[in-house]
Predict the structure.
Amino acid sequence: MRWFAVSSGTEALALLARQDIALIIADQRMPEMTGAELLERAIEINPNAIRMILTGYTDTAALVQAINQGHIYQYINKPWDRRELKLTVKLALERYELVMENQRLLKELQAANERLKDENLLLKKETDKEFGFTNTVVRQSPAMRHVFNRLDKVIDNSATVLLTGETGTGKTLLAHHIHSRGPRKDKLFIEQNCGTLPETLLESELFGHKRGAFTGAVQDRKGLFEAVDGGTLLLDEISEMSPTLQVKLLQVLQDGSFRRVGESQYRQVDVRVIAATNRDLSTEIENGRFRSDLYYRLNVFPLHIPPLRERIEDIPPLAEHCLRKYRHKLNRQATGFTEEALRDLLRYDYPGNVRELENLIERALILSSGDLIEAGEWLPQPPSDTNEISRLEQLERVQIERSLTINNGNLKLTAKELGISRTTLWRRLKDYQK
C-alpha cells in the first residue's frame, strides 16, 4: 500500500489527476481551499475514492451538510485517537474494495448481457436460416407471391390466422414468419400439434392444471396459453381437437379468458392464435367433427398454401436452399444439379410437398460423389398422366423465366440460349400475360 503526502489542495488535485487514489484524508483548514472544497472537486476527478476530513472545530454544520450531499464519507475530530483512526481507515479501504468489486462485477454482468444479446441474435439468425427466415424467402411463383401479398396485410396486427394446405407445404414456416415480423416478435412463439396428445393431456398442456386435479398432478402448472402470454401460439392440426376442447378454445378467442383444469378461477391472457390444418374444415363441420362457431372465430384471416406441384417455379430455388443446408452437414461437395436432374425435379408431383423435396435432396446428397447431383434412383419416376402436356408447358415457362432473369431481361440473349427465335420467345411471353 502506498501513501502520498501533499501540502495544499492544488497539489492534491494534481496528484489525483495522475494517480489512482483509494482514500483521501484532508485537513479542513488548508492553503488555497478548504478540505471540504477539495473533496467536492475531487469527485469530478476520481468519484470512487473514499473521502475523509479532519477538523478541529466544534461547529461541524458545514461538514454535516457536505456529508449529506455525498461529498464526504466521514469526518474525524481533532485530536484523534490513533487506534480509532487506524480502524476508520481500515473500514474505509474495505469499503473502497467493496465498491470497486461491485463495479467490476457490474461491468462483467453488462459484458455478459451484451454477449448474451449477440448470442441470441446469432441464435435467431441460425434459427431463421433453419426455418428459411431469410430475405430470400422462396416466392418466385405467382401462387406464392399472392400468398405473401396477403400475408403482408396481417403481419402488423394480432388477427387470428387460419393456415390451410396439404401436409408439407410450409404452414409452420409461415406461422413463424408472421410472428417473427409482427409486433409480438420479442415475445414467445410456441407450437402445439393438437393431434399428438389425448384430450385430457392436451387440455392440461394448453390451459394448465391445479394440483390434485387428476392423478399425477402433484403441483400447479401453467399451460401454454399462460406461458406464451403476449406472444403467439400455433395450434397445428386444429381439426384433431376434441369438441370439449373446442369449446374452451372458443372462449379464449372470444374474450381471452380460460380456467385451468380443476380450478374455478378464470385467468386472462393476450395471445395471438394461428391455427393450421391439412383438412377441409367445412367438410369436418358437415360431418359434425368441428364446431362452426369456432371455425368462424379461427377463420378471421384464412390463408391457403398451394401445393408444390402448383408452384413449380419455386422448386429450383428450394432445391438449391436444401442443397446448401445439407451439403456441409453431410460433408458432400455437390454445389448444383445437372440439367437432367433439375428437369426430373421439375416433373415430379411431390405428394409430400416441400418436406418431401427436402428429404429427396438429402437423399441425393448421400448418394452423390461429384460436384453436381445427377439424375438417379434418389428421385421416384414422375407419373405419366393426362396432365403431362400441361406440366411440360409449365416446365418450359420456368426455363424461359429463369433464362430471362439470368440475362437481365435481354430477349436476344435469352432466345439464343434457349435455341429458339426471338419471335417464338415473344409469343410465349405474350401467352404468359393472358
Observations:
- The chain has a mean pLDDT of 83.
- The chain has three domains: 9-100, 138-306, 310-432.
- The chain has 17 helices and twelve strands.
